[in-house]
Target: Tyrosine-protein phosphatase
Amino acid sequence: MTQQVPSTEPELSAVRNFRDVGGLPTVDGRRVRHGVLFRSGHLAHATEEDAAYLSSLGLHTVFDFRNSADQRLEGPDVELPGVRNVNLPLSDPADGAEFWRMVRDGDLDQLRDILADGKAAGRMIDSYRRIVTERTAEHSHVLHALAEDSVPALMHCAAGKDRAGISVAVTLLAVGVERDAITADYLESNAKHRRYKVRRNGDQASAYTPEVMELLSPLFDARAEYLAAAFDSIEDTWGGVDAYLERGLKLSDSVRERLRARLVD
Model:
């Protein structure tokens, strides 16, 4: 049986953006069950205490949405005894590699060229749209696994904001969580103690100036407009959530019912 999750959020010292999404309301007046679906940033640097806490949750599966480039940069997840780790990259290793090198190493003029005048936010919006429209097989795999036996589950990417954020949002849509509640949970990633730490090479004085941080902020923010773009892409491509789940993700009514039975009180 799933162990009772503490009502207060744990202090994980080396796992960013961890939380239980239990308690979110559905459109039919129910709530997501506590202790069955968690989200976070990567587990590569988890301490022994962090790992002990995560192990206490009775996790069945950890879904890691990082690509091989992410894993080379941060390292593999720590092993949690008895927990299955499923790696489903939601972005290609070569996708944007030069862009992210520029983010880490570029000087101010270079950053202005690739990020200023709305280009950074535009890149994020395009990424969110593509993850929804192009990664249907991966999202289908996750939802079918959750419906069968893979709960309690933890979903993560690098920061736990974008790829994991979209996957959590898709899961919540599938069980009928209110759209505003999904967005509110997504925006929790902006809390100071949750945010991914920006990495820049070079000396502190030049690498993290106020202008540099302002240019970078759209990449590291959780913004409602990004998630809205993902939702809009569902409407634009499939005409609505039900059609997206049925045609895009190949979810039958019976699978959706099993999914609700596992995730919703």
